[in-house]
């Protein structure tokens, strides 16, 4: 059914704006008049084809674009605020479809409102957009609709998403500076070897002096980079591409993820990150009425480690068989020991949801501290390492210069 954007004057003389689905503009005007308003304008809004419209079904991915995570979080927060203020869901979606930032999000909200007016529940409308609303979102809204606590659950969902985004930004931000430092260091070394060292090589050849071993090694590396640099780059890119393809194989990907968790420093950090993400999702789901097996199933999906996913599957099976949570989680050995012990206490006291959220708080802080500590050590180590390499190149050239001068005298 077409969507119309209208303007009208209400009985108090105030100008009102909104959107309405109707067969034609005359129907919109008639409805406005029935509501006691004086219609001013009724204009049809051009929209991409709906999946239900009988079109080719290609409009969603190609026209709508991908909605940002932050935009979905903002929409969730604002929708919760409107519902708390007593605004009906359909009316709240109509307001947000005009006020939210970004054309893609606006079209997404319009699609949600359209699905609801066609008879879907809010959770069903969300499920029609899996790229923007993951299963955890849909299941929490389903539980909220059943319990009549939609505004409260949306508020908690917004909190959950904001914390998850903050953790993600912390990890990315901590890795950004070392990545830039490593890249700049490698480029500097390559430029020094390819552009500077060959200039001195020509001078040394003209002098005819026997060069020290260190100088010959540096010149050999420079020649190799100059003549075989492109080949070396292609080999490196080929190796990365081969690794990427290998990670698509379930067996290799499982082996890779399993061994990542065993690395001395990185493995401990990955376990802390897994504990923070898993417990935040798990606790949020339990707190909003999702049953234990389903909460575990949905929380498993946030684990980016395939080994962790398979192990959590075994935990879910044990829970369904009545073994409880703590013991299977201890045997799984994917979360830090302290996290498992705290979950055990929460299970025994009947406070599993708040305990899981507390564990998430603890390990989010631990991740931040571990990243800060790791890169506090890594950054000066990188600077010193690059400095030593550059100093070695310079010293090798100076040794050759001294040799040439000794020959001249």
Automatic annotation (TrEMBL):
Q: Gene Ontology terms, cellular component aspect?
A: plasma membrane
Q: Which UniProt keywords apply?
A: Cell inner membrane, Cell membrane, Membrane, Transmembrane, Transmembrane helix
Q: Which spans of this chain does the record mark as coiled coil?
A: none
Q: Does the keyword Transmembrane apply?
A: yes
Residue ranges of domain Type II secretion system protein GspF in the record: 75-198, 278-399
Give GO BP annotations, semicolon-separated. protein secretion by the type II secretion system
PANTHER family (UniProt xref) = GENERAL SECRETION PATHWAY PROTEIN, PROTEIN TRANSPORT PROTEIN HOFC HOMOLOG
Name it.
General secretion pathway protein F
Q: Which organism is it from?
A: Limibacillus halophilus
